Structure formats: C-alpha cells, structure tokens
Fold this sequence. Notes:
The chain is α/β, with parallel strands linked by helices and 386 residues long. The chain is 39% helix and 19% strand. The protein has two domains: 5-195, 3-Layer(aba) Sandwich (Rossmann fold), CATH 3.40.50; 274-384, Rossmann fold (3-Layer(aba) Sandwich).
Amino acid sequence: MATSTTERAQRVLTGTHFMLGNYAVVEGALAAGCDFFAGYPITPANEISERMSQRLPAVGGKFLQGEDELCSIYALSGASLAGAKAMTATASAGYNYMQEGIGYAVAVEAPIVIVDVQRCRGENFASQADVMQMKWGPSGDHELIVLAPSSVQELFDFTIRAFNLAEEFRNPVIIMSETTIALMRERLVIPPAEEIEIVNRRYTSLPPDKYLPFKANEEYGVPDFAPLGEGYGAIYSLNPHSEEGSIDWNPDVFEQLYKRITGKVTQHRDKICKTQAFKMDDADVALIAYGSEVRPCMDAMEMARADGIKVGVLKLDTVWPVPEEQIIQVANHVKLAITVEMNIGKYTREVERLCCAKCRTAVATKNRGLVHFPEEVYAVIKEVWR
C-alpha cells in the first residue's frame, strides 16, 4: 500500500471534478488504499475495470484481468489474506457467478469489497432487483454488509467506507450500485488525503506459538491477522474450523464459529447501519428508499408538501444489515410508510416487518428499466394517503 506523501497524492485526486459514477468508485477505492483489483468484463461495470487498469498500476497496485468471475472473486480472497486491500466490480449476472467465492470469503473472514452495478436481466437498464441476493446469495449462515449510494459523490464516499468496514470487521462488503448512477456524470468533490479516514486491519502482537488465527478477543469479535513472512501459519478453509484453524467437524465448534461470524456484524449494527432523514420531524408520511430511488423521492416529497401533505424521506445508506432501529423510530412517528423500490417489491417486506402495528404501509414499485419519475411516487402518495 502507498505510504509516502507523494504516492498518497497520486492516489487521491483532491479537487472538484465532473466525473462518471464508475470512475468515482475507482477514485474512492484508491483513496481508501486499494492495491489489488481483479475483474471480468461486464456492462455496465466495465468503466471500473478500465480505469483501474490504468490508475492502479500507476500507484503501485496490481490489476488482474480474470478469466471469469470465479477467478476474480477467489483472486480477491487470496490477495486479501496476503495483506492487500482488494476489490472487484461486476454486474447482476456476474454477481451470480461470484456467490461461491463470496461464501468462502465470509468463512475465512477475508476483507474484500465487491461492486455490483445492478442491471435488468441481460440488458443494460436500471434495476434494484439484486437487493435480496446481496444478502442471501452465498450458502451457509452468513452476514453481508451492503451499502447503497445514490449519487456520484456517494459512490466515492461509500467506496471508502466499504473498505473501512471490510478491514474492521473482516467481512465482504458490497457496494450496491445501479446503472442509473454508475453511468451518469455529476459533481464530485475529493477532499485532501489527510482528511479521509482510513481504517486498516489489526495484526496480532502475539508470538507465532501463542497465535490462534480465528480467536477473537470477545464473543462477537474480529480475530487479528498474522503478519506475513514472520513464521505464522494459518489454514484458510471453507470447512468448519476451530480457533486454531484446524478442520475437524464438531457441532459445538461449528455453532460457535458461525455465531461469531454472523454476530460480529449483527451485534455492531449501531456502528454499521447508517440512514439519512429529510423533513421527518413533522412528517405524517415517510418515503423509505435506497440507491437512486432516493432521488425521485426527494422531489415527490416537495410536491406533496406543496399540496399540504407532510411527507419526509428516510434514505437507507446501509441496506444490510437492516437499519432496524432507524426504521422503527420512523414507524413510531408517522402514520404511513411507503417503500419505494425499482423491483417487484422485495425490501418492502423488511419495512413491513418493522412497521407492523405501528403505522400503515404501502409500496411504490417499478421494474421497467427506469428509476421512478417523481410524479409516479407522488401518485402513490395521493392514492394511499387518506
């Protein structure tokens, strides 16, 4: 990873830019310290790989053109376990192929970042239909952290946060991008390098004969890594493994392992889950949305308020784990919660679960390759608000 002032400056293009969303992801990754990228061509994520192939080697990183998505995702885990900050980028169909490798990264606790630029099935049009797969795709008990940017600026900011969360919790982190924001150009402000918070993984201070590669310091904690080339040994296997890393089927060991692997995410929701509230203080109606669907919701909110309906917006920056406390707080405050999604209605089930018996719920769904128009969201508000 670059450490000198000159190398850091080359990584962080401080200033104001008019930049493509996919390029903003690359700049966020480099600012976060990414030094390994593996990917396989797929639209609408190709600009990420293309820019990475130019920018990453220039700052001392390694770029790998994978032969397919499986090669890319497994290369990520290998690089990560060897000490790199690693990322890949794909789109919906390619994300399908990566599930086995993501499950491996969960099991061996390899911090990696995956960008999924969602698209309609086989076509380069916008969708949010992958939202459930981003949580439930891999086999076995697991938790994934999924961030949902809604602008070019957030593609940059959230990519940095994705790397920080991956390093802190030793877990795959997904950036849930979409065709809409990935292929648009917007204003992007990149701050000075010294103003960007960077989180790096913890390394053990124990000697090799005392070190246990999968032992955490607390019940739902994150194990420390072993420094490379200093006599530490570790087996990184998908199979059930003990704190020592040995593969030996034991129901108690298996249960303890996966309770900790899932618990290190679920027990730290307060730190992981982020939302933003807009005009919620006096709202009777809440629009709950994530990703690019937040954009028409903001306009629909203003249209409704001009018509005398007090509408606010709860923007979900973190989709998984579910920001339960924030949604419950909204449900206790409003009379109606409307989930706005670019799919047939998937995440709305989570919202309904949390709003049950607290407020009425409704949905505004669309899966036609386009984000909602504000008028479409406002039409749902008028239809269900009585």
